[in-house]
Structures are given as structure tokens and as C-alpha cells.
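In response to reviewer comment 3 from the previous cycle, which asked for concrete evidence that the modeling workflow produces usable outputs, we include below a single protein chain processed end to end. The sequence was submitted unchanged, and the resulting C-alpha cells are shown without manual editing.
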Amino acid sequence: MELADEADKIAMRYFRRDLRIDRKPDRTFVTQADTAVEKALRERIEQRYPGHGVLAEEFGDRTAKQETRWIIDPIDATHSYLRGIPVFATLIALERAGVMELGLMSAPAMRERWHALRGGGAWSGKRRLHVSRVSHLEDAQIFYASRSAFKAVGKEAAFDRVVDGVWRDRGFGDFWGYALVAEGAGEAMIEPELYSWDLAAPLVIVEEAGGRVTDLEGRRTYAGGNALASNGLLHNAILKRFNQA
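The workflow returned the following C-alpha cells.
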């Protein structure tokens, strides 16, 4: 929790202020808030856990083949952060021997924090999280980051097949979509493009809430590419619709 507390202070210090904004090679944005949060967390981890590696969005992978590593997104939903929208979070995960053991998502402007320890359940404060029990797609609420993102990767028709006929589809993207699935407020979160630091923490939280997380071909992974997180009951049905020939 200390890492998240420090990240929150830095993120809020810069929030809704004039920021220096740079464009990365992949055409996404980075601000001095992103780099300040990541630098602070790296320094704290190196001080307290000198044998641990770190994989994070802005400064890459410094694992040196360590068995234990931290996977960090200093500010998830940077576009929201830039526009003064309070839906952003720092994502922190801990991997040990290839198993994701801990996931934490801290959204200071929303005054929300979600966390999970492998085998210990998923929590928001003292409230234990459980995915929904909705078992029919026509009753489901589906979250996604951006319809245009599916179009950009040639998967717009596949996305339309998934949301066609569901009760509701909502563009609650980034970390918040996964949090809502873990809370039982919706049945699935689907993303066509993401990185390992986007998914590592949400994966633990959704799974510990009773859900399931795979890529869009049904493989359990946090390596990035794309993702489907669900309450588990609708997972195969969504995959079938998405991959329908």
C-alpha cells in the first residue's frame, strides 16, 4: 500500500495542472506525471527490494532475469488524466516465478482502490468483491475501451457481434472496466490492444473476484496484445461470438 500511497500523492500533485506532454514512438502520450510516478516507485522498490526486477511502461524492463518482479503502469488512462477526467489509476502487480501474486489499482481522484492477493480474494477497502452471476448474454452489460480501437485493428465486425443483442454496452475503458467486472457491475471487459502493464494488476483482481481473464483467443496470459475479462459464466460465449467466422 505504501507504493500506491506515494503514487497517489504524485499523480494528484500534477492533476489538472499545466503538464509537459510528449508523444512516444507508438503515438501515445506521456507526461511528467507518468515519469515522476514511475521513477519514484522504481526508487522505492530498489531500496526496499533490491533483488526484485521492475517492468513498467515508461522506462521498460529492468528485470535482469530476477524471479520476482513488479509490473507497473504509473498512470493508466493517460488521455483521461490529460483532459482533467478523474478516471485514472496507478496499476501495480507483483509476479513471482511466472505467477501473478498481487494486483493493486489505485484511483486517487475517484478515492477508490482495488487490490487482490493470490488466494486472498479481491477487495475495495473492507468490501470483498465478487463478479456477477449473470449467465445470459441478453442480460449482460459489456464494457470496452474504444470502438475505434477495434476498427483500427480490423476487428470492428467481431466487436459488433459481441455487443449485438446484449442488454447494454458501455465505453468504461482502461482499469475501470476491469474494476467494474470484479465488483459485479458488469459482465465483461474487452480490449483489442494493451500491454502487460495494463493487464497484470487487473488480472489478479478479476480472478480473485471469481472471474476469468484471457486473450481474445481464450489463452490465459497477461503478456498483452488483447484481453477479455468476464464473470466466467459468459466467457466462452463471448469468445465464440468474437471469433465467429
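The chain has a mean pLDDT of 91. We consider this sufficient to address the reviewer's concern, and the full set will be provided in the supplementary archive.
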